[in-house]
Amino acid sequence: MQRTAEGRGPVRYGPPAPQPGLPVLSDLVSVLGAAAGRSSPQPPGGGLSLREAGCRYWGRRGLATSPENVAAGPGAPALLLALLGAYGGDVMLPRPCPAWWTPQVRLLGRRAYHVPTPAECGGVPDPYALLETVRRVRAEGGDPRVLLLSVADDPTATVPPPELVREACEAAESAGLFVVSDESWRDTVHRPHDDLVLSPAEMLPEQAAVLVDLSGALLPAGWPAAVVRFPGTPRGVRLRAGTLDVLTATGAVVAGPVAGAAAHALDEPDAVAARAYAAARLHGLVAAAAHREIRTAGGLARPPQAGRHLYADLTPLRVGLARHGVGDAMELEDWLGARLGAPTPGGQRFADELGALRVRLSTGPLLGATPEERLAALTARDPLELPHVRSSLDLLGSVLAGLA
Predict the structure, then answer these.
(1) What is the 3-state secondary structure (H, E, C) of the chain?
(2) Is pLDDT of 93 > 90?
(3) Cβ–Cβ under 8 Å, residues 71 and 243
(4) Which residues pair with 112 in a beta bridge?
(5) Mean pLDDT value across the chain
(6) Is 89 left (phi over 0), alpha (psi -120 to 50) or beta?
(7) Across 353-362, average pLDDT
(8) In terms of Cα–Cα distance, which of 160, 164, 209 is closest to 185?
């Protein structure tokens, strides 16, 4: 990661999404290998078999979908850029939000307006703050048309309660906003029987699109593929057509062999489903242990519920950090990352306040330094008892304890 002062801000040095740190599932390797000889490109928006697999994926989650209402692209950023480009208008986002969302909006020459999230979770804006911000922005000549949110969040690793998702959707509907729900992390929920994920498309079937990046849970990050579900309405049809125009103009298509692996993963055969469940369980156990280390040292963090990360607020340790010359999130990113030997992107990356001492910690680096160690963590009955996992957690605890 670039760490010089000059390199802090550019998008190209932004933090990647937290990686699983696990070997690629052999089942997926076989599918990709079998398709490696295909030379025909996928059409913009994805071929029929990939889109049909997306329909089956959403059908298992209670969202009946037709192939003509689905589009695929080479990863969520390319697909979201095309969708926002087709829809038009300014975009409302929660604060904090994924590091790549705001650059997408600005790249299109649109304005991004960040709205605070509720105290108990991230991913969705506070509904009252959303309405007030939309009113103010329009009074000042802005043109907010889209609300971008997440029901399983990066960076906060939280799952908004259904009632908060419902209230945010009601606020968006009353403000005339189209909702784009990034659900890439919904299949990484640590306790799926305890934390219910509610999609805005269930509440606003005519006014919400659903975006899923398969690298969230189903595919390796190096095999980029994502799908988006549009409303089955005339406006949804027009939006999909406009999205395909942008994908075509930019050449943003899914590679043929990857499309086959993506369709296979979206069908969630036993091996894929079992790996996703086991990985979510592993990262959940390690994230909970890291959360305990942070709280023991006097830091703050919402209990992690999904993903491969957690969001730590070290503001209570400000005096101890100041002894090391750390006064903002940028400096915290450098200082903590150097001591842990892993990227710890500061809150400024996620549109958070620079003065708040917040960082996103990924659980992947805590699983071990080699593929063998990480696989051992995946298959262990209690990964927290493995020496290399315990050592990583102890290092985190000792670094934070030194700030007391």
Answers:
(1) CCCCHHHCCCHHHCCCCCCCCCCCCHHHHHHHHHCCCCCCCCCCECCHHHHHHHHHHHHCCCCCCCHHHEEEECCHHHHHHHHHHHHCCEEEEEECCCCCHHHHHHHCCCCEEEEECCCCCCCCCCHHHHHHHHHHHHHCCCCEEEEEEECCCCCCCCCCCHHHHHHHHHHHHHCCCEEEEECCCHHHECCCCCCCCCCHHHHCCCCEEEEEEHHHCCCCCCCCCEEEECCCCHHHHHHHHHHHHHHHHHCCCCCHHHHHHHHHHHCCCHHHHHHHHHHHHHHHHHHHHHHHHHHHCCCEECCCCECCEEEEECHHHHHHHHCCCCCCHHHHHHHHHHHHCCCCCEHHHHCCCCCCCEEEEECHHHHCCCHHHHHHHHHCCCHHHCHHHHHHHHHHHHHHHCCC
(2) yes
(3) yes
(4) 91
(5) 95
(6) left
(7) 97
(8) 160
Q: Which pTM was predicted?
A: 0.95
Ordered strands of the 309-313 beta sheet: 300-301, 309-313, 358-362
* Strand bridging mode 90-95 / 112-116: parallel
Strand partners, 312: 301, 359
* Cβ–Cβ under 8 Å, residues 295 and 303: no
**What is the dihedral angle through the alpha carbons of 123, 128, 129, 130, rounded to the nearest 10 degrees?**
70
d(CA 338, CA 81): 33
What are the tokens at 73?
Answer: 């692209």
**Torsion on CA atoms 64, 67, 73, 79, rounded to nearest 10:** -60
Average pLDDT over residues 21-31: 93
Lowest average pLDDT, out of 22-26, 124-128, 147-151, goes to 22-26
Q: Nearest to residue 343, comparing CAs of 324, 366, 321, 323?
A: 366
Contact in structure between 344 and 334 (CB atoms under 8 Å): no
Span 112-123, pLDDT tens digits: 999 999 999 999
**Unique residue bearing structure tokens 């979908």:** 65
